[in-house]
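Q: Study each token:
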Amino acid sequence: MDLREQIGQRLVTGFPGTELTEDFRRMVREYKISNVILFRENITDCAQLKQLCGEIQALVRRETGHGAFITADQEGGLVTRLPGDAVNVPGAMAIAATGDPENAYRAGLLTGRELRALGVNFDLAPSVDVNSNPENPVIGARSYGDTPQEVSRYANRMIRGLLDGGVLCSAKHFPGHGDTDTDSHLALPCVDKSMEELERTELLPFREAVRAGVPAVMTTHILFPQLEPEHLPATMSRRIMTGLLREQMGFDGLIVSDCMEMRAIKDHFGTVNGVVAAMAAGVDLVFISHDTLLSGQAARAAEQAVAEGRLSAAEMQASVQRILALKEKWVDGMPEGGFDFDEARRENEALLQKTITEVHRPAGGRPALGSAPLCIGCPAYRTSLVGNVDAGETNRFGDGMARALHGSAAAMQPEPGREEIAALVELARRHTSAVVGTFNGRLRRGQLELVARLAEAGVPTVAVALRGPYDLASLPESVWTLAAFEYTEQSIRAVARVLRGEAEPTGRLPVTL
């Protein structure tokens, strides 16, 4: 294998649309780019995804002699890439709300089998971040909880389920993205903690995942100045990637980067420079997730860095050997396997019902919805760049809940102002109750103001948190509050069953409000 082929094994790229582009084909031919990341924009339905994965494998095998890692962020809940006719399991915090770590294993096993059947062989999950900061805009309900012990209990079972299901997986985001109020997709966060502080919280789930045999660990683009004084994010820090993760923690699997086009890297260091620095730091598999042609530029820069001695040829070979060893087992050596979608949907629906959590019940008991409830929701807008493509100006919660409860629907903006709030309260007065879906309301506080004004007006009110449960921390005592952890059709159906009295909200809150 020559140097260009070696570098191609270490790069992952994406492409726009639902078919292989000529740019992607050229990058595979010319630079031997050997791995792919897929997003929701690449997928229309399960049949198309399976065909696309087959075409990727055929192209990469023909041009490189080895199979491709086909990766996706299939965490469940808020971060899913599979299409509507697939089965998307609940997210991490929702699973933890069931109180049973074996549900994490079941979710992982179902996901692994489904991905394997569709042609995806590497799930970039789970998050083992400890969501110790309620203001965290990017992790939140993607975490199993706010203590390292609980995160480890659930994450390790999810990891085992994914592996048993037949796919690689990756614990992320090392050394921890849970205690920040900044999204690294948009800026360069800083966690100014000592090693001792990190050991108590952030690092513990990673240590446990390494002991449990996780095959890959994903990096984070965050500054940790007490670990790396050179103003380098963890992904680009040899002290953190090699010194801490490899040498101190004894991790011998794949180190994979988060996307190098995120603004934490792109705006401060440049994507191509960041790729070379990440390789030098000890990252095996480096992601350029969107700009296909940029992967070719990165490959050329890496070749030059080897020629100039800035990248070690010996470390390049060792990294490629780690990659090929995993491909031999998980790409070439793993049969496709079957998957019963109907059975999986039934299992998943039952699992998701267990996640619905009653956070607060008023002293007088559940408020009666009456014969004419008003169901209020905002669009399922994109709250972070890690989420899927914006769902657009729709009122999925209000419309879906109104159908389920035989009520009326009303839409609100993600950040309703005083006039909109007043109009919605006046409209609710003409109904028997109000059911409000909040979505990131802790950061868009107009949603919470609406709930408070409804309660103040004497309208029997239910508030349903459709992302993190933190929205529900300080609402009026008269409001019945439920946590659903995700804004999806399946979560709306599960909440509706509770509101109709057909199911009990048996979940328990996995974080402290």
